Amino acid sequence: MEDTTENNRLAEKIRPVLGTKSATIRVMKAFDLRAGKRLGQNFLIDPAVVATTVEAANVQAGDKVLEIGPGIGTLSQGLLEKGAYVTAVEMDKKLPAVLQETLDGYENFRLVAGDVLKTDIAALMGGEPFKVAANLPYYITTPILLKLLTSKLPITVIVLMVQKEVAERMTAAAGTKAYGSLSVVVQYFAEPQTVCVVPPTAFFPSPKVESAVVRLKILPQKSVRVSDETLFFRIVRAAFGQRRKTLINALKGGGFAADDIVAALDRASVDGTRRGETLTLDEFGDLSEAFLNKGHGDAF
Ligand code: SAM
Description:
The structure is a single chain. The chain is an alpha/beta fold. The chain is built from 13 helices and 9 strands. It has helices at residues 4-13, 21-30, 47-56, 74-81, 95-102, 121-125, 141-149, 164-171, 181-189, 229-241, 247-253, 258-268, 281-291, and strands at 43-44, 64-68, 85-90, 109-113, 130-135, 155-163, 190-198, 203-204, 211-218. The strands form 2 sheets. It has a 7-stranded mixed β-sheet with strand order 4-3-2-5-6-9-7, sandwiched between helices. A two-stranded antiparallel ribbon has the order 1-8. Helix 10 (229-241) packs across helix 11. The longest helix is centred in the C-terminal third of the chain and has 13 residues, at 229-241. The radius of gyration is 22 Å and the shape is elongated. Bound molecules: S-adenosylmethionine (SAM). The site of S-adenosylmethionine has 22 residues, from strand 1, helix 4 and strand 3.
């Protein structure tokens, strides 16, 4: 008599790994899929990159993970194999039917159809801490990242595949070419680290640019003390809005009154003839507090 239990175990063991070129092409052919440029579809075809991404998030059995853009389920499979509970948001209407097949048998997978930018993530993930992992659609990297970082949700770590150049901006130090408002915002909320650089050949179809896996460890407490985040981000945007101008002129261009700027710069001991791109995160924080007339040492 056939031992079905044994057969089931065998099927589990030989479950095809999705993250190879042949498996990806097979799935795409079977479902008549064409990778859509509009949706930033470049599917991972390198199992080592999938493994590195999963490891970067230190995914453990029982972890709750939000995945953005599961595609045909390649990264999802890596996360599920570690025993994570994966909630994935996918916008492409053709993919739910594909995922139902490619991730058949993984009970911890939940698919939510829709645009992640319009999704109520708080309602989706509940109140418990969770991780985020994604091979992002590059055309909306920044809005997705800002949505996650400013969400005030209990996210512990965000691991993302992004364009290499964007990873450089996230991790850049003050005064360097890549340093900009994205660096300040990311480093205000998190400790970013580039895990690895990924060549175009790791994807099908291959993108034109190099990519990188970045890990953002969310800080339990923000890296600088800021009383008014809206003001802080407005100052940062203004300072980088006109990079070639002095800080004083850039802030004027950002709609701040000349008198307030001079007083705040003085209170924060920041030289207004410097360029915004030379200011450290601490200095942006001091400046923001100084605009509120709350220089160092003031009780608030
Ligand atoms: N995770 C898969 C992988 O690694 O092979 C696919 C990654 S592919 C770069 C990006 C995925 O995001 C695609 O499946 C695309 O359909 C999906 N996507 C694009 N825009 C989206 C959006 N606004 N909301 C949710 N998913 C989106």
